[in-house]
Write a structure and sequence with these properties.
Helix content: 25-40%
Strand content: 15-25%
CATH architecture of one domain: Distorted Sandwich
Shape: globular
Mean pLDDT: 91
Largest sheet: 10 strands, antiparallel
Length: 771
């Protein structure tokens, strides 16, 4: 067992934030004072299709303003030494024209240095507010409030309200509100977590026929990426007192009174991408016809918004969030000042925003910044989809359907990598592999099992057999084929999977990574189970569609049964890979610079016994029913001291297992690391965007770690809480087979209440209950 002296202490005070700068409010997050580089991320808005960053210390531009889901630029990857199968085309999220950037002048003098600045995020209204107070001479001042709402109920629309308040005298305010299309300053950075560099690409405006709507032509535009060929359209219209006005205007503000300007903005995209196209990426020239069509769609959206009116749009936004909190809220009574609950709501709000209308994958940063170039990873299925499965299953299905649409590109990648079935890319946006560093990219083939796990978890928890029969089965079959062909039967009579990288990216290109093998085993078994669950007509359709051969599922079962799962009998622990005990231990006492990836060459790290995150511990959680408590404790005791936590994902799994094996104080420390990762900038890169998977990990830490939820990929649903000693109670919500449940945990009891739907049977503290 860990000694209390070995528990690593967080560099956090009771409240990691300055309460005066960030006041505590359970339903709002507010910042007083001049914004920092991190502020733009913390106060960003999104609906999963449009993302708008908050105010920062740097000017807004095409790299730090507004983003669209799936909209990206491409570039040729130049390897120092070429080899077959390397990723050829890089992808990076491309910023789009920003419609929430304004310039103000009074008496010909531009207002640039506000005396007071404040911005806030409202979790019930779904709005972000930026407020400024400017001194304009003779003791007079002007207050400007900019309230933005990215519609959670409609993918292509956002609304911004400007309110001017004059103090000391009436004044005439000149407003310049043109779309911001400034290009960012191109610079290089050695941090691989940041966006890739594209020096010769980016957004270009297309010539289109003017559309007259009583507003200036500058209020509409069509733009395309120079290399990817993706095209987007944007338009906005403005009103004062119900009258349309241009993008540059004057507004008279009476002394002691206020004046309001309303701007509606619409975004649409035209995509050519390889999803569903077996032959891969083809880019053609985007012509004026498509551009005009995009602008026409923007105009339609704006006409609809104007007809609705701002008040009705706000009502729909509030109603959407009211449903979200009814289905997803987590209430924590920790006896504290409310900071923990406030931050918990911030994390949940970020998950809600990032997935509200998304039709593509969910990137590691959502649409809150350019970190990781806007790429999608395994993060989505492992850390975000579980939250959706239990709170918004329809949205979980949409995201898994996106993976189904990626199958043609994944099949193509599998053929290139000399395996059967489908191999999903480790990272990218359009379905193609975009990882140039294959050691910690393409080698992480565990992504196939992660996606298959999410499919099985979704089907088991929701009972959505129709999805399984039409889309999920294709993912399960094609990923099972990949595993069966990737590995081989060794002389020792076990099935080996060699030269892979597990979730721990500090241990690369190893043989028989435990996480990869045990998750592949799960994948193979569930693919066979799924085939056998189909009725005759469904099975015939799958056989025709996928060419399933007689005995193929039996072969998967045999491979799964013989899978090599490294274990050391002397230590009594599962080995992360075959060679972990032969590697030299890391000198934690002297080599203390973090994160290691910014201070040591990869090969220096690969030679040592040191972990970025504990992938074996993650497997203990995901496949919980496979392991006894003693096994979990021994594995945790072995791997936790080796883990740097350089990955923002690590703390969640460490929290969950620490809580389960009885290390309550340590579990709380890891929970706080996850909870405050972004708002306290613990990884020094919040400015690049939200750690969205970490937000999912916060939900998992509370619901699975302290709330005790386990399902082992949908196999054995149970609740066995481990409430922290300092908490009075915990309440969370689950949706299971369409029934909504509210679970309340105290130190003396677990109450499960059914809010709607049919009765549900689950195991609570070792006893079966029908709710």
């Amino acid at each position: 067992m860990l000694d209390s002296n070995e528990i690593r202490q967080l560099d956090l005070q009771d409240d990691p934030l300055d309460a005066e700068r960030y006041p505590i409010d359970p339903w709002k997050f507010t910042e007083y004072g001049k914004p920092t580089a991190e502020s733009a991320t913390l106060f960003s808005l999104s609906n999963g299709t449009i993302g708008v960053r908050g105010e920062a210390s740097a000017p807004r531009n095409l790299g730090a303003g507004t983003f669209l889901s799936g909209f990206h630029e491409t570039f040729a990857i130049r390897h120092a030494e070429e080899a077959y199968g390397f990723a050829r085309v890089g992808q990076v999220v491309q910023g789009v024209p920003d419609t929430v950037d304004f310039r103000f002048s009074v008496n010909g003098k531009q207002l640039t240095d506000p005396q007071q600045v404040c911005q806030s995020l409202d979790f019930k209204e779904g709005t972000a507010t930026r407020s400024y107070t400017y001194e304009v001479g003779d003791g007079a001042s002007l207050e400007v409030s900019i309230v933005t709402m990215v519609c959670l109920f409609r993918a292509d629309l956002m609304a911004t309200t400007l309110t001017f308040r004059a103090h000391g005298r009436a004044m005439n305010v000149h407003v310049e509100g043109k779309m911001n299309t400034d290009h960012p300053v191109v610079s290089r950075d050695v941090d691989p977590r940041k966006a890739d560099l594209i020096a010769d690409g980016g957004l270009r405006k297309l010539e289109v026929d003017a559309i007259s709507r009583g507003v200036a032509d500058e209020s509409f535009g069509a733009f395309h990426c120079l290399h990817s060929g993706l095209t987007m359209g944007v338009g906005f219209c403005q009103q004062v007192d119900g009258e349309m006005i241009p993008d540059v205007f004057d507004v008279k503000v009476p002394d002691g009174g206020e004046k309001q300007v309303l701007r509606y903005a619409a975004y649409n995209t035209y995509r050519i991408n390889p999803i569903g196209v077996d032959k891969g990426l083809e880019v053609s020239t985007i012509g004026t016809q498509n551009s005009a069509e995009l602008i026409r769609l923007c105009a339609e959206t704006l006409n609809w918004a104007v007809a609705q009116g701002l008040e009705r749009l706000q009502d729909q936004q509030r109603a959407w969030l009211e449903r979200f909190w009814q289905e997803s809220d987590v209430a924590i009574d920790d006896g504290g000042d409310g900071r923990l609950q406030q931050t918990m709501h911030w994390e949940l709000f970020e998950l809600a925003q990032a997935t509200a209308t998304v039709a593509n994958g969910v990137s590691a940063k959502g649409l809150s910044g350019t970190g990781y170039s806007g790429h999608y990873f395994w993060d989505t299925e492992t850390y975000i989809v579980p939250f959706l499965i239990y709170t918004n299953p329809a949205r979980a299905r949409d995201i898994l359907s996106y993976r189904f649409r990626m199958l043609p590109a994944a099949r193509k990648r599998a053929r290139m990598m000399s395996v059967e079935g489908a191999l999903f890319p480790w990272r990218g946006i359009n379905g193609e592999e975009a990882s140039a560093f294959f050691e910690a990219g393409t080698a992480q083939c565990h992504i196939d099992a992660d996606i298959a796990y999410a499919v099985n978890q979704y089907v088991s928890v929701t009972g959505d057999h129709e999805f399984l029969a039409t889309e999920g089965i294709d993912i399960l079959v094609e990923t099972a084929r990949m595993w069966a062909s990737l590995g081989y039967m060794g002389w020792d009579g076990t099935f080996h999977i060699n030269t892979v990288t597990g979730p721990d990216e500090y241990t690369a290109l190893v043989d028989d990574n435990y996480y990869t093998n045990v998750m592949a085993q799960f994948n193979l078994r569930k693919a066979a189970d799924a085939l056998e669950s189909l009725d005759g007509e469904e099975l015939n359709a799958v056989v025709q569609r996928l060419g399933v051969k007689p005995g193929e599922s039996m072969h998967w079962r045999e491979v799964a049964e013989l899978m090599k799962l490294p274990y050391d009998k002397k230590l009594g622990v599962h080995l992360q890979d075959d060679d972990i005990l032969r590697r030299e231990p890391w000198d934690f006492e002297h080599d203390t610079q973090r994160p290691l990836l910014l201070h040591y060459h990869p090969i220096v790290i690969y030679r040592r016994r040191v972990l970025k995150q504990t992938d074996t511990v993650l497997a203990l959680y995901l496949l919980s029913s496979n392991f006894g408590l003693d096994v979990k404790r021994r594995d945790f005791d072995f791997y936790d001291p080796l883990t740097t936590g350089d990955s923002s994902l690590s703390a969640a799994s460490q929290c969950i297992l620490a809580a389960e094996v009885g290390y309550g104080d340590l579990a709380m420390q890891y929970f706080l690391e996850s909870l405050y990762a972004d708002v306290a900038n613990l990884h020094s890169n919040t400015s690049d965007g939200i750690h969205l998977a970490s937000a999912g990990g916060v939900w998992m830490s509370v619901v699975a770690g302290f709330g005790g939820l386990r399902d082992s990929g949908g196999e054995e649903l149970s609740i066995d809480p481990h409430l922290p000693n300092e908490w009075e109670s915990l309440t969370y919500r689950l949706t299971i087979h369409g029934s909504r449940l509210v679970i309340t945990v105290t130190h003396g009891d677990v109450t499960v209440r059914r809010v709607s739907g049919d009765p549900v049977t689950l195991q609570v503290k070792g006893e079966l209950r029908t709710v």
